[in-house]
Write a structure and sequence with these properties.
This protein is mainly alpha-helical. Helix content is about 60%, strand content about 5%. It has a seven-stranded mixed sheet, with helices on both faces. Helix 9 links the parallel strand 2 and strand 3. The longest helix has about 70 residues. The chain starts with 6 loop residues before the first helix and ends in a 6-residue tail after the last helix. The N terminus is likely disordered.
Length: about 650
């Protein structure tokens, strides 16, 4: 029996596509002329213009009546099969949230064209759409923090999801893959019911992918896979063909082919199909290349994976069951969940494509799998899981389980902020400034309330100081400024390390870089603050008792002066001799002056201390404010960005945000 090609059918699909484009232009022209609403022709509300996928869905819904008319007009030539196709699938754009797709009418025949079927549209909504949206937001938030190579896989998943979303949802694309001599092409022909793919002892036999579609309208999907029209086939029409309605089967070259181009075909198409049938034989079912390069990395795609043990007719007795059990054991070691006892997972079957034994069971499984129309969505969900696993080190590693929920606390604690402020205050000498302010207040009180004779003596001692004799004046340590700068840098490093603790390496590095950028010029800014926020210019404020103490000190001085003049007058004979009164006056002034000064000093301790603490507080607050604006705020912005991307990452994984 010879292969049944679909060159004529393919040309007819292309012609239908051109007619559909002309029909769209006519419809749009009538809308502009008569102001009709788009939903007069669609089953659902119009979609947002920025959503490419939603727009395609609305377009397919609005053209349903027109397509049915085209099918009716060409029904005789097409024998009841629709000829419209989906748009080409080349060039995957970045994923955009799709609007709610139009539901196909229940009366639409199985061959009627449709951009997306109701089954796949429903699967694309809900959790899957939310995960895709979260991944798109995650990539957008991370572009300035992560390199393009890290985000490449996530971008590819978004592009392929958008490309698959725009194509037919009525079809399920399944690839048959395997090693050399495993019987892939024989199984391909057995499912198609006709010899399509060449078989033989020459290796490799299959040089390029061959596609076989059981239903019309798969041209866009085959275009996306890069399968030319000359390699597109149709199965033998019969009762078995109805079982696989909607199936697009791809026969791949050998994954272990000696020709590099063949292996490249396999790797490229395996990333684009909805499901894979891995064909193994009793001799090479445990091949390390198969398990390490393909099965193990794709363990998360178990729900869209079939593993078929072919050539069981070569095994005697119960050897087939033993090999099948060993195959299941290897798959379990690879981390592939097996779909047994109603649980989701990979389907494992034993058959002989040559004799037909077990092929019917595979056909039934494929028919049920295709009828569900959820393979494309499950494949994208598995790709999302794989992308999330690859991104784990840059979004959640070191942040505790579940993206940081219940793990290490992310961010700066109040203790860390206070320690940073204390270190900056120590660097600017806030405590020393407060003590200096306190001493200045006491000194001013001493000048105002001290005895004039003591002030005169202090002035005399100051005039006799070392500066009048050329003695060296004590200077501040030469490395004082360098020491203050080192303290500032140490404070910045400490708070940056505290903020980056528990973060994945890229985000921890971003936090440290933000802190270092903020620290540039921080010592100079703190020096300026020390001048502005230190001890204020002018005299310190005076308490209420200060004038009383000054008046009392003046009275004591007057008593000394009056008593002394009285004694002098008695000595020179001007006054009547009487030593008692002037001596008592002088003694009262001499003793009372120091007593007033001592009392003023005792009374000045409290106000001086408060004045010093106030000066220290002002300088501490100014230093903390400067550090917060230059260091803590940029660090907090980076931490906030990380929290946002972490929440998006948790949504990508499908978990609820705690």
């Amino acid at each position: 029996m010879t292969a049944v090609t679909d060159h004529t059918e393919h040309e007819r699909e292309r012609e239908h596509e051109r007619e559909r484009e002309h029909g769209r232009e006519r419809e749009h022209g009538r809308e502009r002329e008569h102001g009709r609403e788009r939903d007069e022709l669609s089953d659902g509300p119009p979609k947002a213009p920025e959503s490419a996928a939603g727009d395609d869905s609305a377009r397919s819904g609005s053209e349903g009546v027109w397509d049915d008319g085209l099918i009716a007009r060409r029904g005789g030539a097409a024998a009841g099969r629709g000829g419209a196709t989906e748009g080409p699938g080349g060039g995957a754009d970045a994923y955009a949230p799709a609007g709610t797709p139009s539901e196909a009418p229940s009366s639409t025949p199985s061959g009627a064209p449709s951009g997306t079927s109701s089954g796949v549209s429903t699967a694309y909504e809900g959790p899957l759409r939310a995960r895709l949206d979260a991944l798109r937001e995650l990539v957008g938030l991370s572009r300035t923090r992560l390199d393009s190579a890290t985000l490449a896989e996530a971008g590819r998943v978004l592009d392929e999801a958008a490309a698959r979303r725009r194509l037919s949802g009525r079809h399920t694309v399944v690839a048959i893959a395997g090693a050399t001599g495993s019987g892939k092409s024989t199984l391909f022909n057995a499912l198609a019911g006709v010899t399509i793919s060449e078989t033989g002892v020459r290796r490799p036999t299959t040089a390029a992918p061959i596609g076989c579609s059981w239903t019309d309208g798969a041209a866009g999907l085959l275009d996306r896979l890069g399968i030319p029209g000359r390699l597109r086939r149709r199965p033998l029409q019969g009762p078995d063909a109805a079982t696989l309605e909607g199936l697009v089967l791809i026969d791949l070259p050998d994954h272990d082919s000696a020709v590099g181009e063949h292996r490249a075909h396999v790797d490229r198409i395996l990333e684009l199909v909805d499901a894979v049938i891995w064909v193994v034989d009793p001799e090479k079912y445990a091949d390390a290349m198969l398990h390490e390069r393909y099965l193990r990395p794709m363990a998360g795609h178990a729900e869209v994976t079939f593993v078929v043990l072919n050539q069981v007719d070569r095994l005697p007795g119960d050897a087939a069951d033993q090999v099948l059990d060993d195959l299941r054991r290897l798959l379990d070691e690879d981390g592939i969940a097996l779909g047994e006892h109603g649980e989701p997972g990979a389907t494992v079957l034993a058959l002989s494509a040559l004799t037909g034994d077990g092929v019917g069971e595979l056909r039934d499984s494929l028919g049920q799998f295709t009828k569900e129309r959820g393979a494309a969505a499950r494949r994208i969900a598995a790709d999302l899981d794989a992308a999330a696993d690859r991104l784990w080190p840059v979004y959640a590693a070191g942040a505790g389980a579940g993206g940081g929920r219940g793990g290490t606390r992310i961010g700066l604690s109040e203790e860390a902020r206070e320690e940073f402020a204390d270190r900056l205050a120590d660097a600017v000498g806030a405590a020393a400034a407060g003590q200096a302010a306190e001493r200045a207040w006491r000194r001013h009180a001493g000048k105002a309330c001290g005895t004039p004779w003591l002030r005169l003596w202090r002035w005399y001692e100051a005039q006799r100081g070392p500066q009048n004799f050329g003695w060296p004046v004590p200077q501040a340590p030469a490395d004082e400024e360098a020491t203050a700068r080192q303290r500032v840098e140490h404070a910045v490093r400490t708070v940056a390390d505290e903020a980056a603790s528990g973060l994945p390496q890229p985000w921890g590095q971003a936090v440290r870089e933000a802190a270092v950028r903020g620290a540039e010029g921080l010592p100079e800014a703190l020096d300026q603050l020390t001048v502005r926020a230190g001890v204020p210019e002018g005299r310190p404020p005076r308490p209420g008792w200060w004038p009383v103490a000054v008046l009392a000190q003046a009275a004591m001085t007057m008593l000394q002066v009056v008593g002394g003049l009285w004694l002098v007058a008695q000595i020179i004979g001007i006054a009547v001799p009487n030593l008692g009164v002037p001596v008592l006056l002088m003694l009262a002034g001499i003793v009372g002056g120091p007593c007033v000064e001592w009392g003023s000093r005792m009374a000045a301790r409290g106000p001086a201390r408060r004045y010093g603490l106030d000066a220290e507080r002002r300088l501490r607050e100014a230093a903390a404010g400067c550090g917060r604006a230059r260091v803590l705020d940029p660090v907090a912005a980076e931490l906030l960005r990380y929290r946002e991307v972490r929440e998006q990452y948790v949504r990508v994984t499908g978990a609820a945000v705690g």
